[in-house]
């Protein structure tokens, strides 16, 4: 019988039978999960109106000595009828267990009592027995039959044979993101493996597993943390669902966004003295990232692959229509968002917003050009969400992480092949962000005329972008089937730059209004290039007016 007088979970049955304990499960769904999930950083549905929480499935994971934890698949139903599924490992720590007092409060769902044994119902990642069980199952490549299908543990090349039957150390990493991360190691190297437990689940293999396992097992590209295994829920006649992935852990890492920020400090401090300084090692680093990006793209270009998931494809009408629909939908939402938020923007952002709105016809014509222009370049799987924050900087090199794809895209969209220039566009947008955020957000420059700052940041950006692009192109080699010729290259880069900057505009209006001018400036640069293409086209017979870019040169308001 369930005690309904407190919010604690009390059941007369034992913890090990929770998956069949209907009363306890209903109590969990109605009383424990809603407040708990709302505190979890990884629960993406916080801001949506939630209708119901359901424990859809409970997979049992043995912890040794008859103990068990569960991988609960929690289904969240929203008011608009949409549902999402999240992974929540559940463990029961009895009060007298030695580590009961060490569970952080964010890991505790509720005090609980099962079969008169008191303890805490916790997120399993905080239970060392559960962490070690995951590792042992990965190392042993175990398959665990469940009521619904099976949970299978795959072991990848990255997991060393010496680390199979040995003492393992584990901890939860304080990574505050949309997933959870665990570190594993051996006594002389306690942080050797990085296990990501995916929280929001796709009804398919996570694209990150596709890409990281492909690059580790089928290519020579070594600038990712090697694939060490994955945890998959498999059912007959249903696509596999990835629950977690293990890779090697990168030591002493800092991401390239912070590293570029450090390099930009020297530049920033010189600006008030009207000096333009960039250390040479900045160019070396940027060049190296250009080379690594190209090597990643060459590794993903796999024309001889038997696997259709990786075979290069042409620019079909279907693909073009998909990109056009996406850009048009983004544009429509962004125009509306700009109108709604116009008064919140600073004067520079307002001026840029005007030019963007006025360029609508020109952009529409550019999109039509993309629909019909003959293109012989190719599309492959790509990183998909490539920016400076996704590249870890080691002492002398770079390691690329987070191949999950764009946060806003569906699983089908994330598996679509694109021109690798979509990644290139992501990275050069990121360099533009880095310099703009530094120059426009620092006290050192607060008294400097914004138009002057704009010119200075543009000079830095142009130099860095060209350095990155030259290294990229040199490494790709010319000619290469990925890119038919420089005309196609330049045209496609503009398409993806436009898509990325328009996407970013929405992100900034929603989350960082002070930064709206950064993507707007990015859009402006694309518009200038579009204007050049359209003006140079001898066959062009259009009424589209030239843009009044002079608006941007207006001095202080
Ligand atoms: N293999 C790794 N080794 C060390 N740290 C990593 C590794 N992979 C990711 N990280 C760290 O974890 C953070 C989150 O990882 P990421 O793959 O971006 O996950 P998410 O998609 O959940 O944000 C990264 O910013 C980085 O600091
Ligand atoms: O990192 P996520 O995959 O969650 O991506 C989202 O957040 C990013 C910010 O963290 C955002 O990226 C934009 O800002 C970055 C600097 O903070 C910059 O380096 C990127 O170039 C820029 O796009 C990303 O757009 C958003 O989807």
From TrEMBL:
Q: Which residues form the Maltokinase N-terminal cap domain?
A: 36-127
Q: Supply the enzyme class, top level.
A: transferase
Q: Which reaction does it catalyse?
A: D-maltose + ATP = alpha-maltose 1-phosphate + ADP + H(+)
Q: What InterPro entries does the database record attribute to this sequence?
A: Kinase-like_dom_sf, Mak_N_cap, TreS_maltokin_C_dom
User: Which residues constitute the signal peptide according to the record?
Assistant: none
Q: Which UniProt keywords apply?
A: ATP-binding, Nucleotide-binding, Transferase
EC number(s) of the enzyme?
2.7.1.175
Cite a single GO MF annotation.
Answer: transferase activity
Q: Which family does it belong to?
A: Belongs to the aminoglycoside phosphotransferase family.
In Swiss-Prot or TrEMBL terms, this protein is called Maltokinase
């Amino acid at each position: 019988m369930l005690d309904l007088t407190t919010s604690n979970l009390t059941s007369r049955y034992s913890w090990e039978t929770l998956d069949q304990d209907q009363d306890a499960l209903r109590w969990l769904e109605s009383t424990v999960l809603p407040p708990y999930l709302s505190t979890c950083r990884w629960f993406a549905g916080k801001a949506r109106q939630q209708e119901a929480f359901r424990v859809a499935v409970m997979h049992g994971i043995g912890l040794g000595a008859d103990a068990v934890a569960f991988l609960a698949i929690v289904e969240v139903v929203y008011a608009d009828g949409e549902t999402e599924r999240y992974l929540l490992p559940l463990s029961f720590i009895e009060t007298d267990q030695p580590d009961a007092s060490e569970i952080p409060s964010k890991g505790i769902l509720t005090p609980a009592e099962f079969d008169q044994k008191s303890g805490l119902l916790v997120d399993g990642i905080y239970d060392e027995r559960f962490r070690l069980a995951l590792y042992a199952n990965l190392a042993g490549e175990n398959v665990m039959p469940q009521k619904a299908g099976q949970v299978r543990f795959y072991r990848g090349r990255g997991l060393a044979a010496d680390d199979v039957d040995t003492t393992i150390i584990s901890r939860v990493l304080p990574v505050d993101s949309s997933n959870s991360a665990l570190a594993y190691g051996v006594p002389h190297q306690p942080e050797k493996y990085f296990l990501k437990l995916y929280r929001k689940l796709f009804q398919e293999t996570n694209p990150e597993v596709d890409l990281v396992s492909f690059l580790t097992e089928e290519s020579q590209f070594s600038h990712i943390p090697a694939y060490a295994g994955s945890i998959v829920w498999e059912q007959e006649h249903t696509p596999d669902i990835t629950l977690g992935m293990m890779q090697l852990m990168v030591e002493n890492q800092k991401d390239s966004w912070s590293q570029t920020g450090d390099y930009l400090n020297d530049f920033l401090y010189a600006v008030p003295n009207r000096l333009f300084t960039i250390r040479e090692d900045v160019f070396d680093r940027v060049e190296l990232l250009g080379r690594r990006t190209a090597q990643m793209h060459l590794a993903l270009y796999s024309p001889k692959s038997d696997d259709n998931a990786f075979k290069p494809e042409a620019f079909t009408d279907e693909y073009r229509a998909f990109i056009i629909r996406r850009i048009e939908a983004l544009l429509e939402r962004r125009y509306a968002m700009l109108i709604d938020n116009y008064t919140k923007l600073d004067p520079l952002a307002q001026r840029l917003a005007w030019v963007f709105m006025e360029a609508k016809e020109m952009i529409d014509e550019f999109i039509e050009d993309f629909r019909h222009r003959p293109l012989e370049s190719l599309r492959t799987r790509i990183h998909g969400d490539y920016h400076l924050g996704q590249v870890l900087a080691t002492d002398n090199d770079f390691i690329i992480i987070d191949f999950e794809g764009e946060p806003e895209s569906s699983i089908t969209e994330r598996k679509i092949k694109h021109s690798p220039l979509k990644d290139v566009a992501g990275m050069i947008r990121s360099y533009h962000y880095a310099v703009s955020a530094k120059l426009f957000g620092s006290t050192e420059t607060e008294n400097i005329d914004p138009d002057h700052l704009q010119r200075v940041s543009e000079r830095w950006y142009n130099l860095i972008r060209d350095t990155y692009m030259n290294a990229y192109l040199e490494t790709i080699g010319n000619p290469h089937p990925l890119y038919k010729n420089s005309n196609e290259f330049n045209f496609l880069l503009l398409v993806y730059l436009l898509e990325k900057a328009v996407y970013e505009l929405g992100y900034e209006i929603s989350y960082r209004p002070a930064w709206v001018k950064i993507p707007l400036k990015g859009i402006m640069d694309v518009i200038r290039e579009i204007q050049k293409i359209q003006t140079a086209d001898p066959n062009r017979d259009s009424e589209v007016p030239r843009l009044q870019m002079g608006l941007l040169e207006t001095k202080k308001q």
